[in-house]
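Just curious. Protein, please.
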Amino acid sequence: MSISPPPPGVSAAGLGEVLALFRAQPSLTRADVMQQTGLSRSTVNQRLDALLAAQLVVPGGEGSPTGGRPASRFTFHCDRGVLLVADIGATGMRTALCNLRGEVRAERERAIDVALGPQAVLSAAEEMFAALLAAAGRTAAEVHGIGIDVPGPVDFDSGQVVSPPIMSGWDRYDIPGWFAGRYDCPILVDKDVNAMAFGEHRSVYPDVRQLLLLKAGTGIGAGMIIGGEVYRGADGAAGDIGHIQVAVEDAESEPLCRCGNTGCVEAYAGGWALVRDLRAAGRAVETVDDAVMLIRTGDLTAVRLARRAGRIIGHAIADSVSLFNPRVIVIGGQLARIEEQLFAGIRELVYRRSLPLATRNLQIVATKLDTRSGLVGLALLLADGIFAPDRVGALINRV
């Protein structure tokens, strides 16, 4: 896809700052840009003309008249190209085609076991991408970026999964490289809980600067928003709350976790652990969804185990509340559907163990986006990365 380079003397960084205004607002006039940036008329004209030439900004109607001719308005050309994203879970995958604002335009879903390995799973993602493009009448040349999230630890800089407990064959696999030969665009790879946290933050709680997203599904993990941005830690390992080791009073022994350690939060309270314990108690369950259905029927053993899981998760969350003082804790994943049984235990431990100042205004709530939080957040993360002010120059110079 060809995008005209900026004219001589126009700073790509300056173009990125102006483009950010158009991405954040429905439409602007030249006067609006001058007012919001403090730039001179000639500078605004120069930068806006460059964005128009690159087709990143297009005319978007007329402004309100101010005594003379109405001012021309301009808008971000969000249909200039498309984004492709794949939210990969332990047992299923959602893919979507999005516009350049990161708004989902079409999506598909299929069951697949992430333990089948990267070639099988990424081949399935590529097939779903091709189907989405064909249905939308788009081509691979129009893809401006690809986003992939996975249920395991990710080195964000390299886009590689590192020592994942449940993703056999994925360790250090070059996910960006898989797509690089098929699509000429940036490729983002992140941990699923980071995408989920960003989706809830941007779509539901945009004014909340500190948010924790707990994913309680097959496994247990957390994504953190600090200062309005995803916090990944020094090496991408932040939020691995499921592998905090806890002491449980009524446990006869520390259960073995999928990570190889014993006594982890996930080994007691993850969906797979609930399935294990329910089967040991003689209940006919095979999947996490089976366990959720049984808990919702009111089965006494299932409800007892769910409440116990809530207290164990609450123990780990309480430490996070004391550590970084979030305003909102969002609970997502399959176990969020047993809110009545799970949340009581979580709230009990959080409010008992955390400081009153840290819990005074704390909200503990179920996800609003449900199973789409990862898909929505991944698309928004990808769009923000591609159109970051310091990267617009590379986009404009793309051939």
